């Protein structure tokens, strides 16, 4: 039988245990509260947060994304909300992408801008970008450029945005060419300049190839024959450059051809181009509503022959540039709608719009960045259903 003394002892013991538990809990809380914080850390130097293995579906068209896993963009940046696509989603076999530009062509922009852009792309089902690098910028601002591109590619890695990495040339123009060259054509005509070009390509690939976001490389942009001997010199250069690039990294390699200066305009030989390109990349700016339209030396018969030849050879074909410089937003949207429909009907797997440029958007007349984003941007997003890109 339990007497009053026993009950009293048990009561006192219970009180002691409770007091000890309260003391321990208070000490633990104090340690947590007094942890240092990094609220004032430099946003550019701050590492990306841990990446979740789960891909969150895009919000409904009427909602605004409120991500909690990423730092908020700076207050001076436009914060975009996804809206309903103008037209219904296309077949998922057509993948929509963007040529992602920097106003300086050096990506000095802070990570907050890139994160804001790439998170917006991801929410709106844009999972592919094409990014160019200028030899001139690499030569003139080497160390900063390496840091800038590594930061940019780290953000692409985080968001699983796939990158076509372009070694940029504009034959006949001086913009991407180092001052120690007399012309971009020195790359193919001058043995010393060609080796310097190869050194640039080699160093850049070795520096950036560790980024999983890179899915392919392009050797040049829009090669153009200016003298009769140039054709064979291009073939020789491409053969050597492909061998070099494949010795560094096994990912696919191509060349960005302007349709009006390509095998299908008669400038280059299809067989020679197919030898050095794992896939064909074409820049085209033809009006999809006008079968007799021509621009920059290109026309629809060239496009049709390109599609036919690639299908016959089993060579993948992508559109590395398309777009409209119309000042009429609705006309530009319709251009996108009809172009995407055409690409889909021809079995083209990927199309990169020209272009998206956040900083100084008015400098690029083909720009669809806005702000707010042009209706053409949302036409592009309709090329993918909301749950397509889950890896």
Order of helices and strands: HEHEHHEHHEHEHEEEHEHEH
Quaternary organization:
single chain
Percentage of β-strand residues: 5-15%
Total helices: the number is 11
Shape: globular
The pLDDT mean sits at: 82
What level of helicity do the residues show? Answer: 25-40%
Q: Main sheet?
A: 8 strands, parallel, barrel
Q: Trace the largest sheet across and list its strands.
A: 1-2-3-4-5-6-9-10
CATH class: Alpha Beta
- CATH superfamily (homologous) name: Glycosidases
Give the helix/strand class.
alpha/beta
Distance separating the two termini: 69 Å
Model description:
With 391 residues, this protein is α/β, with parallel strands linked by helices. It has a single domain (95-381), classed as TIM Barrel. The chain contains 11 helices and 10 strands. The strands form 2 sheets. It has an 8-stranded parallel beta barrel with strand order 1-2-3-4-5-6-9-10, surrounded by 4 helices. The protein has a two-stranded antiparallel ribbon with strand order 7-8. Strand 1 (95-101), helix 2 and strand 2 form a beta-alpha-beta unit. Helix 2 packs parallel to helix 4 (142-159). The longest helix is centred in the first third of the chain and has 30 residues, at 4-33. The chain is globular and about 50 Å long. The N and C termini lie far apart (69 Å). The model is unreliable at 1-11, 24-46, 52-90 and 386-391 (pLDDT under 50).
